[in-house]
Amino acid sequence: MYYPVNWPRVIRLPVLGSPVIHHVVCNRDKILVAVLSSDTLTILYNKPCVPVACLKRDAKSLEEHGENQEVEWKPDSSAIAVTTSKGYLSFYELSFVSDQQHLYEQRDSTIPGLRRESAELYIKDSVPAFTLKLSQTIPIDTGATGLVCIRDELMVATKYGHVLRYYWNGTLNRDYCLDLRRVPFCVDQLAARAVPITEPNTFITQIDYSPLLGGFAVVLNDGRGAFLTATTLKFDPNQVQGIWAPLDDVTCTAINHRYRLVAFGRRNTHTDVYTIDETTGGLQLSHTLQLSSKDFPGSPGPVQLLKWSPDAYMAGNWPLRFATLDAKCENLAVAGRTGFALYSFSTRRWKLFGNESQERDFVVAGGLLWLSTKVQPHVVMGCYNIGADRDEIRLYPRDNARLDNAFCTVQQVTGQILLLNLMGDTLLVYTSDCHISLFETETSGNGQLQLSRTQEIDVSTLGLHPACLVAATLTSLSHATEPQQPHGPSRQQNILLNVCGRVLLIQRNEGSDDSEEGSAYYSAPTVLASSVEILWVPNPDRLCPRKPHLTQALWLCCGAHGMRVWLPLYPREGDKGHHAFMSKRIMLPFQLHIYPLSVLFEEAILIGVETDTLLYPSSATSENPWLIPLCVLERNSQVYLHHIFRQLIRRNLGFHAWEIARGCTALPYFSHSLELLLHEVLEEEATSKEPIPDALLPSVLEFIQEFPVYLKTVVQCARKTEVALWPYLFGAGANPRQLFQRCLDSKQLDLAASYLIILQNMEPVSISRQYATVLLDAALENCSWDLAKELVRFLRAIDPSDADSATPSFSSSWKPGSAPSPAGSLLPAKISLGSQTPPVSPNPEDFNFLLGSTVHRPGSRAAGSMKSPSSDASTGIHREITRSMSETIPMSKNYSSPPTGKEPPPRKKSAPVNSHPITITADHDPPDPSLEELFMDLILQRHVRRLLSAGRLRDLGYLAAHFECPLVSWLSRERMRAARVDDFVSAIRRLHADFTWPFPVVSTLPVRKFSNRSISLEEKLQALEVDVSAAPAMTTPVSSDPPFQLRHNGEVSHPPVNGGLLLQTVEAQLKPHVPSQEEWSIQSEGDQISLAGEDRLNDLDSLQESSWGVHSITTEAASAASALCDPPLKANAQAELQLRYLLQLFTEADCLDWALVLALVLRDAMAVLRLVSMARSALTSCQPPNQAATIEIVTRLRDALLALSHWAETDCQGYRPFMNVIYGQVGILTKLILPHTNGPLSLLLEANSTSESASQGSGTKSRHTSVTLLTPLDRVTEEDMDIPVFKANGKVDKLNLPSEGAALQLTQQLEQSTKKEPVIQQPDEPPITQQGSGCIIS
């Protein structure tokens, strides 16, 4: 097929006469063009398109004979016949001027940039000179109405209904003239009676002849069309018979010779194409051509002219005739008017004949092929030897330096070569004598390639013209369906023939054992298909065992009938002998939207082109501008798997469709093919106006369920389809609720969100809201933040007044196969997300957490985050909402402990208030919009509690960055519940793992005793403490100022939350740490290990006596502290910013447990000091009802430091220097606790699990111990008073003392510690010891 490309060329004709053009006709060689106007005949040369001859009639001739009407060429282009309006036939002679070398002279441009630098850029073929003159003019009775040339005669139709036959010398052949009134007409040649035309004044207005079809296509003046044929090509008037075309509005006609097609243009802008039925001899409709309504809207009018595009010549590539690429696409062979040339893409050079005379001595005809051999590739061609006047097969080697006939293999043939084809080493040659010859290629001893004829087949018995054979191909395809192996030793060589669009298969059969050698024969041809333009056979060397159906299929392009594939059907294993009635192959048709050029068998894709036309005015200033078309040609591809699946499923061959699909699941567009399959079937069946007796949609859905992409395929198809068709889709068995749940079970949350939109349109609002809540919970749990954010917007966009709306009017009884209801009753009231969705405002937490901003302005957050849009309106409602029947949600930041003797209530797994979803009934008023905000807040609060309980702070940070929620106030509420840390060591390890934060490493510098060396700056810093004793007590006044206050420096600050721990600035001083009598240590009996630092305590006097003062060590101490706090391995900067963001967040929320853990991970000593200061201020300013909870938190901080110090000593030595720096805060926290105790304190060391595990910090194995110290004595029973003893090897043993002895001694010692009096150990009283282990409290 040929498409017009780009802009049309406007050819300027010599202005000699009338500008009105009546007829344009090319000669047989398509080299010369005759242009006929009213008074002028102009001859144009095709390449370049320039006029070579012109003849203008004078006024006398026009007056006597009339204006020109129609023109026709003589077959040898030596004469031209022209009919006139007054019934005359003029003959013109066109002769070549031999004494003139060329008609035009090539001149270079005067512009330097347009000049040609090489002589090769000039057109070497000169334009010849011609002479055109009138030879004679003869009269035609009643005038000529049609003109056509057959061989050496000219047939002229007249208004009397005659068809006159003239020789080109003007003589009339009276014996073979026709009279339509004597020609019998019928609908086919088998009709028992043929009736001649009886209507008066009936004549032929247009006539076309085809020697391959053996007849004339005629158009009558009354609009009827017919085909005139005869038993012989002489067209004896007594043998001519007419066959009617079933049309009455025919305007023109044209015949396709090679495909034996007759086209009739009609007044309704359509063109009907007919073929000759070989059984009846009648005209059988093949297809109809219609103009696109997009390019030609309305009624363009009747068809006035038809022309079939010519084969084996492309004007755009003139003078190229053939071109072919080798198998690796590395070399190109092209043939023009004479000879051929090679081009290498690797070297970018042409390879030509060394002797130009050899190039001009032959013309390539029939084809050009590449033959791959073991020695080197060869170019195979059919050619005509001009000097020897014979037809030959030539083979030229590729690797020679120059093309030369000396290295060419020549094989003479008996007729003109029309077709060439290769399969392996076998060459097929089809000649004009209707013979197919098979040659085998062999390499001789000198390395030259030889051809030997192996078989010859006579196809003249088909009874057709030799030019009707469009294609001849060697193939291994056959009617059998046994899987073939590539490079097989006995590969079958069958022949496929395309005869006038009919594909014939000729199978090769081997002779019996008794027959003589080489007696193979070919069976009778079998017709596979008709109306075929192009066929593609699989490459036998590229057969894929995983895709035998696709790689052993025959593909056919059938023009207007679309594509067809001859697909093999392989029986199931174990089914041999059954279903013998089934065909071994099946022909499946389907339509395309592109014109195919190539088929990729393994990739299951078609490569083709599509065209588009745009119309532009010729001039913007002209009063009557005419439109110029711009034709655009684009390459495109199309998948075809869904067409094959659909055809097989329709024929109840789903198993074969599944076998094909199983081998194609790895293709990237496999899921898209399934989606196209579902979409096309849904659109066809759901929009059908009539009931479908056997609906295909349920079978298609059942087929798609066999693959993992089923959920994705269904939802994508639904999203791309009209909402009115959804009930038909989901009524076939695909319940959207079940599909939604399957998506949740398989963690395909994005697909579940797509199904949520479907549920929104098909279910009541309350149902869709419930499913959205479930999906939101799953999205939060799987950290799908973007999806969760969209779901929150989706839920907030639901109008509360729609909560009680009825189910959309989708009829659940609409099943596949039934006629659909009117579209108006199927459309629901859709919920709009655009107008009801709150605008997205920049959140400081987004920038801080995602962008990692290091600037943390004091008070830059109202309760830690942006305010909820409806928080002001719903404040009172929030205070009244209960989490359960027995627990209220506190709105203040006061520390509150659970009721005595009661455990905190279990967290609810459902988001709605009071364990019930918010439901709306028709009997109640519409709900307050603040309830929707509360509904969202409860869901987010529940997930915040989950993240806190699991220690997933990184996910908590992402949640804070994506949602506008009062996170600080939520964290403040959970500080005694979910935000409480029970195992600080595990919490630190979890942060290191989640944030990919490296553990500190142990310094490789040698450690010396204090007594034998000078004290280093690090060790001096370890002996320093921060004195905050002079800090004033903080009060908690109730402020009436607005939530956001502006300081004098322009920064935003927040008022303190009533009753909570206060973040304030205190005056702190670094001074040497002097251990008081209240401080204690735990040491082992042998090699003593002191958590407080034994060497540091021994040298405190020398530190005090040194010259270190507050002012003198400030710069040096800060530098050393910075060196200690910085991680030795530079971690991810983004992770550090995230950790510091969380530290600020938890500090503002007074969640001191997690704030301490974050400060330790960051090794931020100043943050630890701030937390201790906050604990001191809270304990000083708290009210009596909250004192117990505050003491518990401070105690837990002190115990956490002790436990982490022990962990650093035993498991993670990298943390030891930092823990030594901040260890002085243990004593400060102890001082804060002791004055508030109700009575004597007991020392409780609670050893938890001692399971051995690998330490992430030091790489050694140890036992983890959870230490709880200084708990009020009245809370501990005597049975639980087990004192652990820390040994030098890091193991923990429990010392079960007698109840009275333990209680008595510990009470006495702790009472003395409370009174701040030193405990003096009596010489005769040994410490409490047992079996070499001891616990000394000093």
From TrEMBL:
<feature type="compositionally biased region" description="Polar residues">
    <location>
        <begin position="1328"/>
        <end position="1338"/>
    </location>
</feature>
<dbReference type="GO" id="GO:0034066">
    <property type="term" value="C:Ric1-Rgp1 guanyl-nucleotide exchange factor complex"/>
</dbReference>
<feature type="region of interest" description="Disordered">
    <location>
        <begin position="825"/>
        <end position="927"/>
    </location>
</feature>
<feature type="domain" description="RIC1 C-terminal alpha solenoid region">
    <location>
        <begin position="642"/>
        <end position="805"/>
    </location>
</feature>
<dbReference type="GO" id="GO:0000139">
    <property type="term" value="C:Golgi membrane"/>
</dbReference>
<protein>
    <recommendedName>
        <fullName>Protein RIC1 homolog</fullName>
    </recommendedName>
</protein>
<dbReference type="InterPro" id="IPR040096">
    <property type="entry name" value="Ric1"/>
</dbReference>
<feature type="compositionally biased region" description="Polar residues">
    <location>
        <begin position="883"/>
        <end position="899"/>
    </location>
</feature>
<feature type="region of interest" description="Disordered">
    <location>
        <begin position="1310"/>
        <end position="1338"/>
    </location>
</feature>
<dbReference type="GO" id="GO:0042147">
    <property type="term" value="P:retrograde transport, endosome to Golgi"/>
</dbReference>
<dbReference type="Pfam" id="PF07064">
    <property type="entry name" value="RIC1"/>
</dbReference>
<dbReference type="GO" id="GO:0005829">
    <property type="term" value="C:cytosol"/>
</dbReference>
<dbReference type="InterPro" id="IPR036322">
    <property type="entry name" value="WD40_repeat_dom_sf"/>
</dbReference>
<dbReference type="GO" id="GO:0006886">
    <property type="term" value="P:intracellular protein transport"/>
</dbReference>
<dbReference type="InterPro" id="IPR009771">
    <property type="entry name" value="RIC1_C"/>
</dbReference>
<dbReference type="Pfam" id="PF25440">
    <property type="entry name" value="Beta-prop_RIC1_2nd"/>
</dbReference>
<keyword id="KW-0472">Membrane</keyword>
